[in-house]
Every structure is written in structure tokens, then in C-alpha cells.
Amino acid sequence: MGKEVRALIGDETKKIALLKELAEEFGVALVKMDSLSKQISGAIGSRLKAQSGMEIYQASSFTLDNFPLAAARKILPAETSKGVWDYSETAKVQMMGPLLERWNPSMLGVTRALQTVSESVIRVVASLLGIKITRVLVAGTSKLKIDMMYVLADGTGEVHWPKDAERREIAVSATKEAEIRSQIATDVWRMGEEPKLFMLSPEFLRNQLHDETRALLAEAYIHNSQQQQAQAAPGSRPKKTGKRAAQTFEVQEILEEKRGKYLVRWAGYHPSWEAYRIQGEPGSQLETWEPRKEMLDTQALQQWQMREGG
């Protein structure tokens, strides 16, 4: 048994070292399959972008150099013809989902969450509409030519289709529109199942997932984030963050007294108040514990003292 054979059935490190030596002898380079998989997945995922510059057309064409046909066949779903992966049908596009979400942390299925640095939640998603991958040979080098189109959608249910050369949205059939909307809804629903990774906007939660409770909590989260950003802004003065910081709130009644503090029920309701909730269901009237000094000169305190005989 030669040393090459013995090495191939030995440990993984020796296998790789030997294969590299053999590859160099033949003038080729070894690339791990995962590296190629990550390359093509990342190239597609990163081109699902919000509208700006050339992205206004929501279409992209590019080439991946030195991509072996055998690797493409191993990584991609089934070819539609020799050396071609032409996925214009929605069902075939969705076969790309496992590959795309594996290497793109901002993707689930074929949909990418577009969240800017300045945004605390996801307000827009981009979803793959169609893709064609073609293997081409240029001077003996195998390359992949990739042409793709995608749609943009927001939490209100508005879908923005790719543009033609005149910057007009392309026409799609009612069937195709229904398929894409279903595709987006499915992927966004999966995002909603992982809130630690995908913080969806109140609009997505309310209109697409029909989850009013989480929508209210998202509104409170946004409000809280905006307050923190304003307080941290350069040159800004420290601001009080209590409920009376910017406006006057009406005390409906005092419910309980404990250790010099009162459990207060506030009149009215606003989603931003959820940031201060300590008990009760989101959307219900807010109740918080307040120090006695905050309740001085209020009618609620006078009523409380009368009830308690104080």
C-alpha cells in the first residue's frame, strides 16, 4: 500500500495535505466546498438591497470567477439544462432558500431583512423574484454568470416590483403576484418566530403576522430607543425620562400604597407607554409605582387618603 493511499485513509489533516500536493503537481488549486458555497450564497444575498443608485432597478448581473461546474452541481439545486439553473418559477426560486439562509444571517428562505444602522426595527424586506445561473468557459476557466431580480416589500403590504429600462415597474400576472406575496409572508412569519435575530416593525407584526400584542411592544421599543438616542446625542442636555418628562399625564386613581410609594393607574393610553409597564396586558391601561412626592397636590391622592382614612 503506497503512502498516498495510507494517507487518504488516515487523519483528515494528512488527507488535505496530500490532496494539496497532488493538486499542485497538476497545476490546480483546492478550494473547500463550503468556501464556494459561502461565496455564491453571499454574492446573491448581498445584492438584495434597498433602492438606491443602480439598485433602483432591483436587478443584478455579475460573474463569479474560477467556479468549477462540479462544485456548482454539488451546491445548487438541480440544473434546468446542462450548466444552466434557470429559476423563474416561484417554486424553483424557493429551492435556493436553504443555501441562501445558511450563509446570510439576515435571510430566511429567499427573503432578506433590510435594516439600516439608524433603524431599530426591520421595516423593509427584499425577496428573490427570479434567478438564472449559467456556467460559462472563458479561456479555459470555468465561471458562473448570475442574473437575478427581486422585489421589495414593507409591513403595510406594499410590494415594489423590479423596474425596466424606463424605470417603470414590470408587469406581473395576478398568479405570480399571489405567489410572491405568499413567499414573503412565509419568510417574514419565520422571522417573526425568531425575534432575537429579526426585530420586525410594528407594521409587519400588526398587518402581516396579526400580532397586536407584539406590535404594541415593538412601538414601545422604538419609542424607548429614540429616547435613548436623543439623550446620547452629542451636546444634548440630560433629560428626565419619567412619564412627566415632556408632557402632563393624568392620574386616574391610586390603587395601593407600599413603602412610601403608590401604585398609580394612568388615564388614557399610548403604545409608547409600554416601555414603563410592570404588570398587566399590553394595550391595557398602564399602572406604575410612583414616589409620594410625585402625587402631591393631585386629586387622586386626596381621594386615596379619604378612602384610607388618612
Can you describe what's shown?
The protein is an alpha+beta fold and 310 residues long. It has helices at 3-8, 12-25, 33-45, 69-75, 90-93, 97-103, 174-192, 202-208, 212-232, 292-295, 299-308, and strands spanning 59-64, 84-87, 107-108, 111-114, 124-138, 141-154, 159-160, 251-258, 261-266, 287-291. Strands 1, 2, 3, 4, 5, 6 and 7 form a 7-stranded antiparallel beta sheet that branches. A 3-stranded antiparallel beta sheet has the order 8-9-10. A hairpin with a 2-residue loop joins β8 (251-258) and β9 (261-266). The N and C termini lie far apart (99 Å).
Layout: helices, strands, pairs:
Elements: H1 3-8, H2 12-25, H3 33-45, E1 59-64, H4 69-75, E2 84-87, H5 90-93, H6 97-103, E3 107-108, E4 111-114, E5 124-138, E6 141-154, E7 159-160, H7 174-192, H8 202-208, H9 212-232, E8 251-258, E9 261-266, E10 287-291, H10 292-295, H11 299-308
Antiparallel strand pairs: 1-6, 2-5, 3-4, 4-5, 5-6, 6-7, 8-9, 9-10
Helix pairs in contact: 3-6, 8-9
From the alpha-carbon coordinates, what is the Rg to the nearest angstrom? 29 Å
What general form does the structure show?
Answer: elongated
Query: Strand share of the residues?
Result: 15-25%
User: So what's the oligomer here?
Assistant: single chain
| Averaged pLDDT | 83
Please tell me the total number of domains. 3
What's the count of strands? 10
Distance between the termini: 99 Å
- H/E element string? HHHEHEHHEEEEEHHHEEEHH
Structural class: alpha+beta
Detail the poorly predicted runs: 233-246
Describe the sheet with the most strands.
7 strands, antiparallel
Percent helix range: 25-40%
List the total number of helices. 11
